[in-house]
Structures are given as C-alpha cells and as structure tokens.
Amino acid sequence: MSKRQITQKRNIMKKLMMLAIALITSVSFAQEMKKERSSEAIAQKKVEKMTAELNLNKEQQERIYELYKQKDYSHKSKLQKRNRGEVKDKADLERKKAEMSDKRKEHSAAMKEILTAEQYTKWKANKAENHSKGKKSYKKKQ
Q: Under a CB-based contact definition with an 8 Å cutoff, are residues 56 and 50 in contact?
C-alpha cells in the first residue's frame, strides 16, 4: 500500500469516528430533552417564568406549581395523532374539544383565585400575546 492510500484510509476512519461521536451526542441530547418533559419539570419552568413576569410570592409559587404539576400534558400526543389522521371520529373529537375548553376554564378560575387582580390581568394579557404569536408562526409554516 502506498502512503497516499494509507492517508486516505485514515481520513475515512477519522470521518467515520466524527460521525459516530456526533450521532452518539445527538441521541444522548434527545434523551435528555425527553426527560425534561415530565409534569414536574414543566411545572417548575412555568412557575419560574411566571415568577419573573408577575412577581409571585412564595405561596403563589407553591400553589401554581401544584396546579401545573397536576395538569395532564398527554393531550399533546393525542393532538399529534389527530393531526396525523389517526383520530377519525368527529363526535369524539368535538367531545374532547369541549373537555379541553372546560379544563381551560377551570384552570383560568384557579389562576384567578391564586393571583391578585393585577397579576391575573397581566397573566391573561401575556397568554393572549403568546397565543397570537403562536398563530403567526403557524401561518408562516404553511
């Protein structure tokens, strides 16, 4: 074998090693991201964000944490199934929409009970602003 062939083989091996390292790193990163999707992690992140935005006191932080910790986030995977066409019964879909609407109203009522009037108004405004931002980014994707 000539020096050139040996050098080419080394370069190929180096590239394969770099590819393997990149693959392992991305898989471990994806697994780490998946762990953070627990109800506790989501609740903690929401409380931290709301504390910064609304200046929550310690009792409010604890109550909001418990509220979000109890919240069921499994509906997101159900919506993804619907978007892929796996849910076909429209009556069932309408029933689920009504359930989600009721849950949103219950959540809003609980937040109204926990927050002061000023905090609640600001929370609603932030929520509406985030909702409109979401709609704009959804339209851009289409």
A: yes
Q: Whole-model pTM? A: 0.60
Same domain for 27 and 70, yes or no, is no
The contacts of residue 28 (CB under 8 Å, 6+ apart) are none
Count Cβ atoms within 10 A of the Cβ of residue 129 and give its class: 0-12 exposed, 13-18 middle, 19 or more buried: exposed
Measured CA to CA, the distance from residue 42 to residue 70 in angstroms comes to 11
Nearest to 50 by CA among 58, 59, 61, 39: 61
Q: Range of 7's domain?
A: 1-35
Q: What angle do CA 134, 136, 142 make, to 5 degrees?
A: 105
Digit-coded pLDDT (tens) for 10-28: 899 999 999 989 888 888 7
Indicate if 23 and 67 belong to the same structural domain: no
Please tell me the distance from the alpha carbon of residue 13 to that of residue 7, in angstroms, as a whole number.
10
Whether the CB-CB separation of 87 and 93 falls below 8 Å is answered with yes
